[in-house]
Here is the input.
Amino acid sequence: MRRYFAVLGLSMLLLNGAPAHADEAVLKGAMFIKSDKSLFRAVFNQFVERVNETGKGLVRIDPVLGPEAIPAREMPNALTEGVIDVAGLPPAYYRGIMLEADALQLASVSPEEQRKNGAIEYLQSRYNAVGWEFLAQYGYGLQFHLFLDEPIKTLADLKDYPLRTTPTYRHFFDALGARQVETSRGELYTAMERGVVHGYANVMSEVAPAGWDEVTKYRVDPGFYHAIVTITVNKKRWDSLSDEQKAILTSAAEAVESEMAPAMVDADQAEGKKMVDKGMEVITLSDEEGAKLQDMALDAYWSLLEGENAESIGKLRPLLSK
Here is the structure.
C-alpha cells in the first residue's frame, strides 16, 4: 500500500503542469466520478474553477483526479495520507473513517440551517478528529428514487423483488423485504437487461448518462434520502495555508451551497422530465404509501447509525431533524 501511494504521489507531481508562483499553494484534488456528464462532477468542477479563478497567484487546485487514477473507495485513505489534498466524496464512502457524516443524507433541515444550529460545527469537530477539514456539501434536495422494469402499486409489491443493493440502501431494502443483489455500477445495465435485477435506486440525473434508461420502464415517487457529496481537505494541508488562501477556499465552498447546489437540484428535475418525455412512466404512490416509504427509509438508516455510535448520533440527530 505504501508503494502504491508513493508511486501515485510521484505521478501526481508529474501531472501538476506549470510551476506555482512562489507563494501559491497548489492542491491536489480528487473526485469519485470521472464523467463530466454527471451533475456531481460538474459541481465539483465549478468549485475548482471558482478557486482557481479567484485564487490566482495564491491557491489553485491542480490536478483533479478521478477513479481512473485512484479507485473511489481508496480516495478517503489517500486524503488522510495526504496523497491528495481536496476530495469530493459521498459520506457513505468514508463512513468507516467518520460515521457521523453519513447522517447528512437523512437531514430534514437545509445546509444553511445546519450551519446556524450547530450541526456543521459538531460535524467539523468530528472531521478534525480524523485529520480532515469540512468545506461544503451539495446534493440536499436531490433525492434517490426507485427505478424498476416491472410496475408496483404498493410497497408490499416489493417483497422478494430483486433490487440492486448498496450499503446506502441495504437496511431500507431489508425493511421492504426486497431480494437484494450485489452488482457493481458498471454491471447494472447488463444485470437489468438479463433480469438478474428488476430495479435499483439512484438520483434521476445519473440514469440516462449511464444508459440505464434503456432498460428501465418506471420511476417510483416520492424519493428518499438526499444524495450528499462533501468537499473536504486534508487538515494538515489546510492548517498550512494562509488566512487569505483559506478565505478563497471558504468563499468557493459557500458558493457551492448557495449557488451551485440549488442549480444542481433543478437540473436533476429537468433530467427526470426528459426521461418521462421519452417514455418512462412515473408510479406515484398514494400519500399514505409515500409517507410510509420515506419513514421506513429514514428509520432504517437512523437505527443503523445509532446502533454503531448511539452517543454521537444521538447528539447529531436532533440538529439534522425538524
